Amino acid sequence: MKKALIIIIFLFGSLSAKSDVIYFPYQYTLVSYSVEFIYSVEWAKKLKSSNVLWAGTGVAGSFFYLKTPTAGVEVAYERRFYFKPDLYNQFFISGYIGAAYMTDFKNINDVGIVPGFKFNYKVQFKNNLILEPYVGLSLPVTVGYLPFPVATVGLRLGICKLKKGNKLK
User: 3-state SS string over the chain?
Assistant: First the structure.
């Protein structure tokens, strides 16, 4: 019972949080959405895991404030664990830390550091074109706000350069 009460308190606290690396810089969001366009480089050194550096731009918002989306740029480091060895696509989980600059093009210009975890599905199209829907949990840290966790439903579209280590070629 105590654990459930603590989780509920944190969820209500999340009403003042943001989302993902690109995040919603207003208070009072619980579940957010993001759509991102990224360029990434993925280094595969083991059969089921890789390291990724990525940068991009995107739109983020709250499902409670659909008429108030924000846009921004982001850069992040991500550690991925794939469920199928040597494919480097389909389902994976990841932990990441990134930074983002967000704006609503009116009065909000915000910079945040965002660590988090994601459950992803990577679809590889021709050559390097990828599509990655995900569900994530992040903890945005910005000046002037107490960090609280927030859930994000997102979609990343972009270019991914996969570089396999010598042992994996």
Answer: CHHHHHHHHHHHHHHHCCCCCCCCCCCCCCEEEEEEEEEEEEEECCCCEEEEEEEEEEEEEECCEEEEEEEEEEEEEEEEEECCCCCCCEEEEEEEEEEEEEECCCCCEEEEEEEEEEEEEEEECCCCEEEEEEEEEECCEECCCCCCCEEEEEEEEEEEEEEECHHHC
